[in-house]
Specification:
This protein has two domains: 437 residues, Growth Hormone, Chain: A; 277 residues, Rossmann fold (3-Layer(aba) Sandwich), CATH 3.40.50.150. Helix content is 55%, strand content 10%. It contains 27 helices and 16 strands.
Length: 851
């Protein structure tokens, strides 16, 4: 490959930037990433978790668009002294953040695919992109004028981002997402004050700022920062700036008794039909128990009945009858005095059933501390009759799988009832529809922590055409195969809470390491007959108490005991029977309309059940528009984001650059040099997203994975950027660095799963140390290629824009690859991107700034 004759433009300065400039860059970067991270948390409440991906897409596109504008309008921008330009851009960014908050909070968006919703999303998209546009314009202009100082400035940029990652979790826990966004605006205003105080001689043609202008800018920046600070303090209760519309619906403030944010979710307690419910991110709901376990079989007076029903104002309500008629109660029927481990106990429904049935030890593992400490043990402790403080109840605030894995206890039942995470991160549209609680490896761990005759009891939503609970059976069957059970067909009991004649029926899957006994089958049959709503989906043909026909007659006899059988098993039951009888979940999944194949830790997308080839056709035909519409819509959203990202990159980045520079000859060297920045951007974002996904299980929650991984990568990349200025003098060293990055990524492919798997049960502090040991060397090297390349091209703004464009596309493509081929191939693709960058690096002109 021939060297391109691309000489860097003479820089205004090559010396180390002043402390004021470094501080301003750190603050702007910190504010921008804090805005991005906090906005994902807000999007997951106001919109749906699929759209939380917009935050990273909007941020990267805004940054890139700012670079395009800086390149196209370079001559005009040179009229402005960098301090004055920086001050005005930061003031505008702060004002745009405030505008974006109002737009997001007051714009209702539903899941309906309509022109109105598209227009509303466009408004949100543009409003949210503007602060990032200001940042991209400022940084690309600053870098273009800074010559050899680029490494220090880029290091400060990454350091500011790492501080945002370090601060976002405590900030969300302490002040909530809206106030965190206000804090981002305040940081921008403070940065504006630092830029306003900066004094430079300026280049020829620049208009240096006059002292009066600086005082005016400083005063404006100070007033804006003070106003944001006052608003944060005034909004400590969340009553001034808070969620107005959630999931397209105006919030009912009268029914909301309690609301609190943290880094995991927004938790509310609402009243409905006389009861109280915990509502997570305005979506997932769990009832709060309100009965003494010792008196749960006594009829309780219910709350007033709605008028016009003909019922008395108060009617009897029996907690035992209500709770034991639900499908998950079959686990309590079979193990009434067993030791229970309950993952995601929420408002205590499963805990109540276990305690009231006589369990001597109930271990609850709840990941959200607000639910445990603020709701169940706090404001509503009396309301719940101190359920979580009972001597036989032991509640742990931790990730469920991490706790189970590190526990030395054995349980009679490991139970999960409709456990979803539903919080959002910037890792992609499927960041939280993937769930490490539902992988084959997780099921192996659950089986290993059971007593010899113990069982797992997992309840999922089910539909006309089964897929979620059906996939649970696939997961359990594959896990049983792995632990040595060759033929587990008699190891399952599947109970539906209804006839699966409508979407959204809870279905319980019970799975044992040992076969179910005839006595256990008899208990299930008796309980099924006593509760009209329950449907046993896989009654055994060899049940010795009945012949197959007799079993079906009795199971489907009218509930008062009279009359003949009135119906056969529902058609949906056939899917469960065929899967269990096949004893081959992989083969069954290949022939089944939905993707119910077992999922592993390397591709933990349990909730993604639509086969890609059928996605559009099924959704257009109405399939999946029930309870799992939100999940499978993610497939469409992800595809739409990929298309939108390509169109946006072409419209806002590539096309303006091409039209502006159409007179320039497309020298091969220039093309390869610019391709270098594209593949470096693809490589970095792909590594970042893949590692976030890898660390979800290890660190216990996607929010923690996002925070720790991005913090460590940005911090170490900042150090690498500064070191690159001194270490990388020629193309040979750059080639070596790129080769080392590719090699280290490949090493992570083979070693990281084993390291993280072995450390799942370790204390959190030790996990952080391991994370640092794994990520810091890689991040240090990954911080070198981009600033080194910027010092060797004459179109810094263009390179900045293309790098951001590649990051936009790469963030979507990484998720597409991960969903279809797993995280291992995703990392292979990242390594390949850095190898391509090594080939393209020969087109970069060695820096003339010296070392």
């Amino acid at each position: 490959m021939t060297q391109a004759t691309i000489a860097p433009e003479p820089a205004v300065t090559t010396q180390t930037p002043t402390k004021a400039v470094i501080s301003a860059v750190v603050l702007v970067s910190m504010a921008s990433l804090l805005l991005e991270l906090a906005m994902t948390r807000l999007f997951s409440v106001v919109l749906f978790y699929h759209f939380a991906f917009f935050a990273i897409s909007v941020a990267l596109l805004g940054l890139g668009s700012g670079g395009v504008f800086a390149h196209i309008r370079r001559a005009w921008l040179q009229r402005f002294e960098i301090g004055r330009l920086g001050a005005w851009l930061c003031i505008l960014a702060a004002l745009f953040i405030l505008t974006a908050i109002e737009v997001v909070l007051h714009t209702p968006v539903s899941l309906e695919v309509t022109g109105e919703n598209f227009a509303k999303l466009t408004i949100i998209y543009l409003a949210t992109a503007m602060p990032f546009f200001c940042t991209g314009l400022l940084f690309s202009t600053l870098f273009a004028r800074s010559g050899a100082a680029i490494s220090h400035l880029y290091g400060a940029d990454l350091a500011g981002g790492s501080l945002a990652c370090l601060a976002v979790v405590p900030l969300l826990n302490l002040i909530g997402a809206p106030n965190a966004l206000l804090l981002a605006a305040m940081l921008m205003a403070v940065a504006a004050g630092l830029w306003a105080g900066k004094s430079t001689a300026g280049r020829v043609g620049e208009n240096p700022a006059r002292p009066a202008d600086k005082l005016t800018l400083r005063g404006l920046a100070g007033a804006l920062a003070a106003g944001c600070a006052i608003l944060i303090v005034a909004n400590h209760s969340g009553r001034l700036v808070d969620v107005v519309y959630a999931k397209g619906v105006l919030r009912d403030l009268q029914s909301t008794e309690f609301a609190k944010w943290n880094a995991i979710s927004r938790v509310e307690v609402k009243t409905q039909d006389g009861g109280r419910y915990v509502v997570i991110d305005a979506d997932a709901t769990t009832a709060v128990m309100n009965v003494d376990p010792a008196r749960w079989d006594v009829d309780q007076p219910s709350h007033p009945t709605p008028t016009g029903t003909g019922l008395p104002e108060e009617s009897g309500f029996n907690w035992k009858e209500s709770l034991m008629s639900a499908a998950p109660a079959v686990a309590n029927v079979l193990r009434p005095r067993g030791d229970f481990a309950i993952i995601g106990p929420g408002g205590g429904v499963d805990v109540m059933r276990a305690v009231a049935n006589g369990s001597p030890r109930v271990t609850g593992i709840e990941i959200n501390p607000i639910i445990v400490n603020d709701v169940m043990r706090g404001k509503y402790a009396d309301y719940t009759f101190h359920l979580y403080d009972r001597p036989q109840v032991h509640i742990h605030v931790q990730d469920g799988r991490s706790y189970i894995r590190s526990s030395r206890e054995k349980y009679d039942v490991v139970q999960m009832t409709l456990v979803d995470t539903w919080a959002s991160t910037a890792a992609g549209a499927f960041a939280l529809s993937e769930n490490n609680l539902y992988t084959v490896e997780a099921f192996e761990e659950y089986f290993e922590h059971l007593k010899p005759d113990g069982m797992i009891a997992i309840t999922r939503w089910e539909f006309h055409e089964p897929r979620e609970a059906l996939r649970v059976v696939s997961q359990a069957m594959e896990a049983l195969h792995r632990i040595g059970v060759a033929d587990p067909r008699s190891h399952f009991v599947v109970i539906a809470d209804g006839n699966l004649d409508e979407d959204g029926r809870p279905v319980l899957v019970l799975a044992k390491r040992s076969p179910f006994t005839q006595a256990e089958y008899a208990l299930v049959a008796a309980h099924e007959r006593a509760n009209r709503n329950l449907v046993w989906l896989n009654p055994p043909d060899n049940f010795r108490y009945f012949t197959s026909k007799q079993a079906r007659d009795i199971l489907w006899r009218s509930r008062d005991g009279s009359g003949p059988a009135i119906r056969d098993l529902p058609p949906a039951a056939d899917a469960f029977g065929r899967l269990i009888d096949s004893n081959d979940p992989q083969q069954f999944a290949r022939d089944y309309p939905y993707n119910v194949a077992p999922v592993s830790d390397s591709a933990p997308f349990f909730f993604f059940t639509l086969k890609t080839g059928h996605v559009i056709r099924n959704i257009m035909a109405g399939t999946g528009r029930g309870m799992d519409w939100r999940i499978n819509l993610g497939v469409v959203v992800l595809g739409m984001l990929l298309v939108i990202s390509i169109v946006a990159v072409l419209a806002f980045l590539v096309l303006p650059l091409a039209l502006h520079d159409r007179a320039k000859s497309p020298r091969p060297g220039r093309l390869f040099a610019l391709l270098y920045f594209i593949v470096v951007g693809l490589g970095y974002i792909t590594v970042e997203i893949a590692l976030i996904q890898r660390f979800v299980l290890f660190l216990g929650h996607p929010t923690y994975a996002l925070t720790v991984v991005v913090f460590l990568l940005l911090l170490s990349s900042g150090a690498g950027s500064v070191a690159a200025n001194r270490w990388i003098a020629g193309s040979g060293r750059l080639l070596l660095v790129l080769g080392l990055i590719a090699g280290l990524v490949l090493l992570h492919v083979f070693l990281l799963p084993h390291i993280l798997s072995a450390g799942v049960g370790l204390p959190f502090l030790l996990k952080l140390l391991i994370s640092g040991a794994v990520l810091l060397p890689l991040g240090f090297l990954m911080g070198m290629p981009f600033p080194t390349g910027l010092r060797r091209v004459d179109t810094v703004e263009w390179a900045w824009a293309l790098n951001a464009a590649a990051s936009v596309l790469g963030s979507v493509m990484a998720m597409v690859i991960a969903i279809h081929f797993g995280l291992t191939l995703t990392l292979f693709c990242a390594a390949a991107a850095y190898l391509v960058a090594a080939l393209c690096s020969r087109a970069l002109q060695p820096s003339s700034a010296g070392v």
